[in-house]
Design goal:
Radius of gyration of chain A: 19 Å
Strand order of the largest sheet of chain B: 2-3-4-5-1-8-10-9
Distance between the termini of chain A: 44 Å
Largest interface: A-B, 33 and 41 residues
Structural class of chain A: mainly alpha
Order of helices and strands of chain A: EEHHEHHHHHH
Number of helices of chain B: 12
Oligomer: heterodimer
Number of helices of chain A: 8
Number of strands of chain B: 10
Strand order of the largest sheet of chain A: 2-1-3
Chain lengths: 176, 334
């Protein structure tokens, strides 16, 4: 799909924005989305530098939440991230308890992490994989690949990620 | 021959094992978002591959509600599958105990049903089908979350392994709630095969894994199989305490149950399940020697409403006709 604004680049950001009760969907490329955000035309519930998929799970709620406290502003605007394949929002996922398509899991990865941990007590798969994914992992075990990622994270001083990886490795080792 | 016709003496406590793998194709939405055309596409793609591997295709739009209901009663398909409004099909290979549902909530649900405790064999058969599909189709998978499924409770291995157990002594001793509690702590669950919870009809229960993410298929099967062995021991210990001297009432109940099953003129399905349980315990305790597990267990799947209607050659039976047909069927078999 092509970006509806510049009509040149591929659309990578899919959002539904509601302004005073009127909803409109956007399919934009990263650059146009950034520009529209800076111009105030689009609210994105994300810290831009953190990337589109690092959205806060409370992002979509916070507009309504605070307006409830401080009185409604003249214009009430909320926006929703949508799955690029099936156009489901996280709200759809949460209401039905089910994903709209396989891509929903990538789109809403951050929002889902806590839910997955409460269902399974875990957030990482360690079982069978389709043949082509096994090849992609280069025949490495998951533990080996995690240890490499940890070494890389420490080297880059990405300590938050390193701590998460360390916990995952411990969990895997305890389960093995 | 269907799995439930293979019952042997060793199926004393474990009647059957089942392994189910959920798989989805990349690029297609799940469940309610899947259009009729997309469902047909998936059925053609996957169904075509399986037909070439000796599976029989059953298009659910081409069969009667009674025929569909009978497939549900045999546990080849789920209740939700029977009522679906978009195209859906079953791929069946009864010799290997394989039943593959196409376009249920997941695009593909591979199930293998085996008689007795045979989890590894059931898994092997299901994986053979999975590998066949994997070779030809792009399966939705993520390195982090494993096989991607409609419901997040199935992510990871997307495998549900279950064992059907006959636990009359544990039921009589009121031990099922404690067992339920113990199993939930290790990621397993027990529920009544007919009806929910502790009031399970026929003392039949299904024990299955609840967790699919962060655990391998082998670990899951091992955990389930260990639990089944422990439950079998507890059931056997309790059964050993039942003697004609100490428990004349239980022995009397068994003998009466045999009499009713053999001679009733009308038999409801609830009554059948109650007497089935007593008679099955009678065989296990050596009180009843003229009835085999094989005959008794085959009835379990043949005296349900749709199965009965089909064997009577009718589209539907009213309650009275059903109870009459059930009593006749039971009498003929025993």
């Amino acid at each position: 799909m092509i970006c509806e604004k510049c009509k040149k680049r591929d659309a990578t950001v899919f959002y539904e924005q509601t302004v005073n009760g009127k909803s409109r969907s956007y399919s934009l490329c990263g650059e146009c989305a950034k520009e529209m955000k800076q111009n105030g035309e689009l609210i994105l519930n994300t810290d831009w530098d953190g990337g589109f998929f690092g959205a806060s799970p409370f992002g979509a709620l916070s507009d309504n939440f605070f307006s409830g406290f401080f009185g409604l502003p003249e214009t009430v605007r909320t926006s929703k991230k949508l799955c690029p394949l099936c156009h489901a929002s996280f709200e759809d996922f949460r209401t039905s308890g089910k994903a709209g398509c396989p891509s929903c899991y990538e789109t809403f990865a951050a929002e889902l992490e806590a839910t997955l941990r409460s269902i399974h007590g875990n957030t990482r798969h360690i079982g069978k994989a389709p043949a082509k994914h096994k090849k992609k992992q280069g025949g490495k075990s998951q533990l080996e690949s995690l240890r490499e990622q940890l070494a890389q994270a420490i080297k880059q001083e990405d300590f938050e990620n390193a701590a998460r990886l360390r916990d995952e490795i411990r969990e895997l080792e305890a389960g093995a | 021959m269907a799995w439930y016709n293979k019952t042997q003496k060793s199926n004393d406590i474990v009647l059957s094992s089942r392994v189910r793998l959920a798989r989805n194709l990349e690029g297609y939405p799940f469940g309610g978002r899947l259009s009729g055309e997309q469902a047909t596409e998936i059925i053609d793609k996957v169904g075509g591959l399986l037909e070439a591997s000796g599976f029989e295709k059953i298009d659910f739009f081409a069969i009667s509600p009674t025929e569909a209901g009978a497939l549900y009663e045999k546990h080849y398909v789920s209740r939700e599958f029977v009522g679906k409004k978009t195209p859906h099909a079953l791929m069946l290979n009864e010799t290997c105990g394989l039943a593959v549902m196409l376009c249920e909530e997941d695009h593909v649900r591979i199930q293998c049903l085996m008689s007795g405790l045979a989890l590894e064999e059931a898994y092997k058969n299901a994986v053979a089908v999975d590998d066949r599909l994997d070779g030809e189709l792009a399966i939705a998978y993520s390195d982090t979350l494993g096989y991607l499924t409609h419901c997040p409770t199935n992510l990871g291995t997307a495998m549900r392994a279950s064992v059907m157990m006959f636990l009359p002594a544990l039921t009589m001793a009121g031990r099922i709630p404690a067992l339920m509690n113990r199993l939930s702590k290790i990621g397993l669950t027990i529920r009544g095969f007919y009806g929910e919870g502790t009031e399970a009809g026929g003392s039949l229960y299904q024990i299955s894994n609840q967790i699919t993410l962060g655990i391998t298929e082998e670990q899951t099967l091992q955990k389930l199989s260990d639990a089944v062995k422990q439950i079998t021991e507890s059931e056997n210990e309790l059964r050993a305490l039942i003697t004609p001297e100490k428990n004349p009432k239980i022995i009397d109940r068994i003998c009466r149950a045999e009499g009713i099953l053999r001679h009733a003129y009308l038999l409801s399905s609830d009554e059948f399940l109650t007497y089935y349980s007593d008679v099955r315990l009678g065989i296990a305790l050596g009180v009843l020697e003229s009835i085999t597990y094989k005959d008794l267990d085959s009835l379990l799947f043949e005296v349900m409403p749709c199965g009965l209607a089909l064997s009577e050659g009718k589209a539907d039976l009213d309650e009275r006709e059903r109870d009459r047909a059930r009593a006749r069927r039971v009498k003929e078999t025993l």
